[in-house]
Amino acid sequence: MKDSWTDEGFRDTVREKGREMVTKTFTPLFLKNLQLPNRIVFAPFETNYATEEGVPTQKQIDHYARIADGGAGFIIVEATNINPEPRSKATPFGLCLYEDRFIAPLSKLAEKIHSLGAKAALQIVDKTFKATQKKPADATVDEIGRIVEYFVEGTARARSAGFDAVDYHWAHSYTVADFLSKRGNNRRDEYGRTLEGRMRMAVAILKRAREKVGKDFPLICRISGDEFILGGNTTLHGIAISQKFAQEGADMIDVSTAGRIDDGPDSYSRERGSPTLDFPDGCNVHVAEAIRKAAKIPVITVGKIRTPTLIEEILQEEKADLVALGRPLFADPLFPRKAQEGRWEEIISCQCCNTCHRLYLSDKPVECALRMKKK
Prior knowledge:
CATH class: Alpha Beta
Number of domains: 1
CATH topology: TIM Barrel
Distance between the termini: 34 Å
Largest sheet: 8 strands, parallel, barrel
Shape: globular
Order of helices and strands: HEEEHEEHEHHEHHEHEHHEHEHHHH
Helix content: 25-40%
């Protein structure tokens, strides 16, 4: 068989394995009182479609409507800023939820997703360190406390806006991720020194949020299960972090990887976070599998997963409970529907060229290169 990550290899996989394999992919999953209609997740992928104020535009609502209508069962809406301090906003056209006035416009987005049969989580994030070039060692204890409360209030607002869950963006190179990172956090007080200290901020958010929203609202933690950078967190750290979060009330771990920029924008860690054609399909699934076995709560896996066959194999072999697709659903929002209906040859296969990712990093509206060619 040809390499599975080439288009020709994809077609061979379809012919050899057959459509009858796609069974578990389209079974429901229960997360507390939330029933997800299938196991395909739209990964949180920032679009730069919001207004400068941080309000969703009609283009943004239409974008998520296409994904929901295409059959993805669970949509995690892109990273949304919960810090009201102007200097903290690193993404000029990113969504915001740092005040109650953002609840109504975001509720329209949640309602649209629900009307098309999908469930919706809102990813919330603090990007202060990225925006200000600060490190964990630069933050005062009072500042840490404020950020904790921003996450807690953001969680409550997401629930008020009608979202079914929150996804905490504690991965890659954002504020809480930097605190969790062995590479990023060199504090010598109670918020550093040891893994327990590095987790203290995140644990405080989980505890306070659970008190705020009660036991039934799902809290999902997105982490870098392995940072893939010298001196950074390994899978063993990812396992320990996930176990602690599970003990403190997390309902699911959203396992991303890498994405650190300490060694520059072209570093291995940055590239591993958005795997190109140089990486095999599903190159990060083993990290999610290890975390799932140890933490004993549901996990989401993500990273260059481009075929119905691979999704089904991951689920059948119990390497993850949900499979997130980001770039593949930008390339073809109808991917899930086509997979379920057996129209595999019609799926537009993501080329992993990262045009979409480069546009996001340039603060430009995100588009798929394949769709741009058709215009």
